[in-house]
Every structure is written in C-alpha cells, then in structure tokens.
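ok so i was messing around last nite and threw this chain in just to see what happens. nothing serious, just curious
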Amino acid sequence: MEPIVQFTKDRRNFWAELNQTRQGGVPKVWKSVFPEATNIDFHTLLQANQYIASVTNEDKILKGTAHLPAVEMDPVVKPYHIEFMENYQRIDTETLFNASLFFSFSDGHHSVHMHRDYESVLLIQGYGEVTFITANEDNSKKDVHTLKTGDAIFIPRLYGHKSVPMGPRVTLSLGANPTKAMSTNPNFMNQPVNTSQPYN
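result:
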C-alpha cells in the first residue's frame, strides 16, 4: 500500500539538526523543510473536526476554540506524526506523542499568551503565515520567527513561546510529552519532582 503522503524531500539532515537542537534546549527554525505541508489546510482541519465531532458529540470549532487536539490518526496528519515518532530522539520519559491543529480565521483570531509547555513541540506551518515569539527562562532573550507554508520551528519543553497569526492559518503541532512529572530543567537532568508535598 502506498503512503498517504509521499514526502518530497530527504529530511535526514533536518532530523539530525533537530535532535541536536533538542539537546541544546533552544528553539530553531527551518525554512521549506516540509514542502508537502500545503495539505495542512482548512479542508484538513474541517475534516478532522467533523470526525472528532461525530465520535464525541463535541464540535470544537463551533465552541470557539483555536485548537483541535488528538488528530494523530487523521489521514493527512498521520504521516507527519509517524515521521516525527520515528526520527525524534526522545529524552528520558518523552514517550507520549501527540498531534494537534492550531488555527486562526483572521489575524485577530486567537493569539495565545506567552506560555511554556511541558512537552517539546515541532510546529509545521500549513496554510497561511504565523509569527512565533520565543523567550528564554527569565525573558531576557526574545526572538521573533515568521513561518510560511512548509516552514517548521522546534520549541523545547519549558521554553516560552506564543503565536501571532498574520491572517488565516493552520499549524500542525507534533508533541513529545514526558510520562511523569519532571523538574523544570529543560534537559531532564534532575530527578522527578516530589509532587506529593503542598506548595509553600
């Protein structure tokens, strides 16, 4: 059986760079590394939403969100998800892989606040254009990255970031989440945090 998407570019060097970047704990952008990402569009978003709505009775888009999670098995998304799982060199307990679609209907639709995810994420830009602002731990270093269709940015766990849509857009997020709570060290070198004690 033929793959659903024929990847059009040899990405071995890309994955080697991404894994090296992950070890360094800083974001990095690659231009035009996913030329086939033209298929990450509103058609894909709406088809994935329709499937999820039909099996959960919950229509995420009608509820006003800008995030459609759990799209790993969508026929368009699945090849990207598999390639990520096969090539990403996880660190310690990063074993929970996921895929989501983030979207905006206009440049004023759903820009999120600066935040830090517990998972490492690879964001692949599909339809449209989006800007990501990234910030180190104490916000002393902020960078601005603009992604167009086919571009990708890797953001290590706990590295600050936010999206700013430049118009209608669909972005694929591929995540590697740790299976248990770890310290805030982005490279997982410390022992797991004892979460049974109350906060002071």
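not much to say yet. The CA atoms of residues 45 and 145 lie 23 Å apart.
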